[in-house]
């Protein structure tokens, strides 16, 4: 089947959604791979490092982009999580109680632990996410009196992940920035009282691109963190294995979004060309369809601590996607020492 031309907005958005789901699945799968191959403690450390890095890179600039920087700290933090996650397609709720107390709630189904994956996530790993991001928002805002109180965790059988930001009268030591109060419950969500994005500055096109970027950003963060935490060799193994498993499972779903068929090496070359286009990378096909020269790799562009082991993300995904496309399709890769360019041989 030929590639469906993405010359309409709707077709382009469908392609973006398929690619977003692939990278979303990779990120969730990577955490599960670390849990099963390295154990809960290593997985918790990895998740903590991923979310702390994202928090340090995205939180303050995100407040400015979303027009929230002027709000009281607890309210600004809660509204940030509501709006930024909503943009990424995450189901989340926000409940204002006072200028010093504001709730957020992630009801089921949980975005990050998609489908049956939630059954494999230890509570310690979910808590590490909160330690990495939610507990550090007060520090980032320069207000050490702001902490997060978690009242529920979905992975422990409760009906959502929820809690509230609270501004205390005194500065909080490290162990008080995230505390648990399981005897409390969030108030009911009223969407009419929740903040909303200005439609004029967030049109459909921008929202769809943000949906794609949201999922890819987690992989952009997770790959170099895996290298730093586990070392290049172990990280390459974990990234490649995850990519192969996810690629095999998700080929059909992604191919439908791209409008591409399956079967032969030539079909797979067509698939990869469409995938590169959808994720915003430049690539040329040569040698009668057996070679693809990938000139850009936006996922890793500008990553200060990039390591060649990060290429295992793509190599693993492409090996898995090739297996999903048809038996005996071999994928070779050269390059990647500094990111792009990369050369792929399909045979």
List the helices and strands and how they pair.
Elements: H1 9-38, H2 40-65, H3 73-87, E1 93-98, E2 101-106, H4 123-132, H5 137-140, E3 146-152, E4 161-167, E5 178-180, H6 204-230, H7 232-258, H8 265-278, E6 283-286, E7 291-294, H9 312-325, E8 331-335, E9 342-346
Parallel strand pairs: 3-5
Antiparallel strand pairs: 1-2, 2-4, 3-4, 6-7, 7-9, 8-9
| Quaternary organization | single chain
Secondary-structure class: alpha+beta
Domain count, please report it: 2
Q: What characteristic shape results from the CA principal axes?
A: globular
The average pLDDT value, as a whole number, equals 95
Order of helices and strands: HHHEEHHEEEHHHEEHEE
Q: Which descriptors would you attach to this protein?
A:
alpha+beta; 9 helices; 347 residues; five-stranded mixed sheet; disordered N terminus; Muramoyl-pentapeptide Carboxypeptidase, domain 2; 2 domains
């Amino acid at each position: 089947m030929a590639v469906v031309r993405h010359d309409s907005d709707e077709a382009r958005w469908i392609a973006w959604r398929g690619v977003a789901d692939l990278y979303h699945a990779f990120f969730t799968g990577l955490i599960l791979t670390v849990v099963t191959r390295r154990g809960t403690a290593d997985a918790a450390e990895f998740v903590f490092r991923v979310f702390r890095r994202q928090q340090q890179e995205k939180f303050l600039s995100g407040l400015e982009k979303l027009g929230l920087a002027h709000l009281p700290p607890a309210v600004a933090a809660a509204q940030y999580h509501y709006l930024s996650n909503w943009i990424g397609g995450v189901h989340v709720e926000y409940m204002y109680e006072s200028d010093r107390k504001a709730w957020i709630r992630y009801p089921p189904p949980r975005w990050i632990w998609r489908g049956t994956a939630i059954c494999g996530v230890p509570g310690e790993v979910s808590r590490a996410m909160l330690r990495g991001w939610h507990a550090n928002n007060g520090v980032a805002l320069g207000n050490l009196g702001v902490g997060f109180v978690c009242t529920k965790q979905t992975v422990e059988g409760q009906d959502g992940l929820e809690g509230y930001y609270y501004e205390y009268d005194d500065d909080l030591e490290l162990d008080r920035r995230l505390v648990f109060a399981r005897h409390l419950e969030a108030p009911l969500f009223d969407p009419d009282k929740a903040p909303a994005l200005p439609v004029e500055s967030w049109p459909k096109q921008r929202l769809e691109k943000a949906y794609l970027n949201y999922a890819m950003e987690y992989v952009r963060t997770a790959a170099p963190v895996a290298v730093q935490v586990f070392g290049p060799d172990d990280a390459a193994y974990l990234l490649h294995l995850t990519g192969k498993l996810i690629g095999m499972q998700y080929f059909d779903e992604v191919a439908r979004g791209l409008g591409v068929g399956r079967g032969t090496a030539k079909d797979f070359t067509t698939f990869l060309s469409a995938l590169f286009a959808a994720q915003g990378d430049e690539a040329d096909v040569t040698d009668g369809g057996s070679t693809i020269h990938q000139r850009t790799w936006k996922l890793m562009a500008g990553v200060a601590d990039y390591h060649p082991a990060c290429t295992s993300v793509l190599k693993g995904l492409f090996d898995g996607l090739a297996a999903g496309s048809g038996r005996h399709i071999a994928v070779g890769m050269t390059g990647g020492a500094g990111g792009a360019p990369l050369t792929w041989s399909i045979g």
